[in-house]
TrEMBL record:
This is Major facilitator superfamily transporter. The chain crosses the membrane at residues 39-58, 64-91, 103-121, 167-188, 200-221, 250-275, 287-308, 315-335, 341-366, 378-402, 408-431. Residues 27-435 form the Major facilitator superfamily (MFS) profile domain. It comes from the Bacteria. It is found in: Cell membrane.
Amino acid sequence: MAFASTAFLKDTDMTDRPHTARTRWAAIIGSIGGNALEWYDFTIFSYMIPIISTLFFPKSAGSVSAILMSTALFGVGFFTRPLGGICLGLYADRRSRQEAMTLGMGLMAVAVALITCAPTYEQAGVTGAIMIAIARLLQGFSVGGEFATSTTFLVEIAPPNRRGFFGSWQITGQIIAQVLGGSVGYLMTTWCTPEQVHAWAWRLPFAFGLFIIPLILTIRLKMSGSATGKRKVTQTPGMMNSLTTQWREILTGMGLVTASTVSFYIIYGYVVTYATKILHLSLTGSYLVQMSAAASMLIVVPFSGYLSDFLNKKLIIFASLATYLAILWPLYAWLVASPSITRLIIMQVSLSFVSGMFLGSYCTLITQILSPASRTTMLAIVNNMVVLVVGGFSQLIVTWLISISGKAMAPAIFVMSGVAIGLIAATYLLFSSISEKFPEKIS
């Protein structure tokens, strides 16, 4: 481990040391803004599945089959996430975190343009679905590198006593994306008639992301052009060496990411589809639920990160996951017994509190237990392999489970399984000898 720390001190030779508060916050704003926009473009697709399923597949397929095909289309994007994570992660470890983030955003811009312009099934048959599939592959590659590069960048640029708080802004960026997605969906369904939504308004949420991308891309280009965080690479351990020497940290991190993944892609990403297609609640109300849950997490997640700088991160993660697991089934049972927008909001906000306490602390902890010299690449592998296996087709699996069982409780069972895996990892982390590998100062 001494070798890794020494290599890191050489690799992170910051040419503008020390960072001033101004340059640090300017870089953070660029990172968070780009992160939020990347995740907005990625997650807005999941919020639009109920609409996309009726536009890009033949009506003869049936409602459930169209939903299954749409969730499969959503899952296509996860195949390229590990590849994007490794490629952009290696690039970030050898060159610059900021340059890797900028490259990823450029790819995202191309993907969003493809979706925005895709013709519907009535207009061009399967051509539109093929264009969306290509766009999803590009989105997956881009987002695959975003989590690792932006998380590592935020934690590394933070003052030593504020890393938990700074690291929590990675998740906060994703939550901002959820707020934007829910807000745009709510406004779209409020201001436009169902006929207008299906005719042209469904393109507006994607066009919004396409319109904002140039601004954030400019900010990131300025970040890349500055001296902040430039790396002078002298020595980096091989990928296989990093995998074999850090297998305990990697497996533990994967367990925690599993709990995070089922939360984002089922508790939050699936809520609109679940509410409208399974519980038969209104589309506008479902977007309102999404906004309410995400808004509450905007408070809880940074608070958890702030708290983790003073309390034991491992203990916060363990306690929040244990509580999360305990309340999942009762809340879902209460909702399913008498579905309503009010009950769905109460359930989502309650889950947002306990999951937000976990999400606000775990990114920084995973970053800190990984060897600094290969941190971005290893974090990308940890995150993207889990997301591919667990998250990519989670909505498809849950929809299939509901269809074959006829039970609306299927999402609860799926999420509980993922949270239980995370709790096992948190328990091991709490009582194991795994320690944080981080220099006292990096700038």
